[in-house]
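Entry 14. Structure prediction run on the chain below.
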Amino acid sequence: MVSQRTTSATAQDATDLAGKAIIVTGGSTGIGRATAKLLAAHGAKIFLFGRDEGEVNEALDEIRAGGSPNVHGTAADQSKADDIERVFREADAKIGGCDILINNAAVSGGTVAEKGFDDIAYVVNANLVGYLACTHHALSRMKQRGGNSVGHIVNVGSMSADQREPESEIYVATKAAIQAFSESLRKTANKQNIRITLIEPGAVATPIQEKSPEQEREKLEKQEMILPEDIARCILYCLTQPQRVDIVSVQIRPLKQLI
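Output returned:
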């Protein structure tokens, strides 16, 4: 039987995002943009980035128009070390560091049979090396804070890590690596009061899907695709759990997606 005291504590000790410094990679479109918008609405300080300056500015304008003024961002390419270092320096100045990192930026890859070395290297650098590099910078800042609630890193992977679709070998390789990276990182980070969560979506209506608006609407109507906002709500749920709770991994896909 659960005591009244235990029940009350459970209701009161959820993690509050108000004032938390959150960096969202790939935050100008899709899942990243929806996540930045939702977390900002819960009082978080947001720093987002994406490759296209116009899309970054559109995302910032949209989020600020919703009543969340403490949102900042820049155009940056996660495949480039200098860009990542600049992002974290600017985040230090604008939002005071990094309590939470949402590792989300990714590009599609195609098949190795049709891609040369430079194309393959770019996808691997953007989708994998960039995740590791951002994590490196985030961890250094989280550890400096100390205490019982140091930080949280959410790695947005993909169900492609397990599904391993044909003609997507490069993308699949990076997402399988993100899965393994998350599992390994957790074994060290948890000891330092840093939580690691892996979110693996199925088909989501984002630019990376490369579908026409008509195809996208049809997929959504048939429940074969979900919205970026669905993933954002899942991320919010994971971030706001009590500190004693570590949501290790979540797979979330459309109801009618069979593979």
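The chain has one domain: 16-252.
Filed with the rest of this week's runs.
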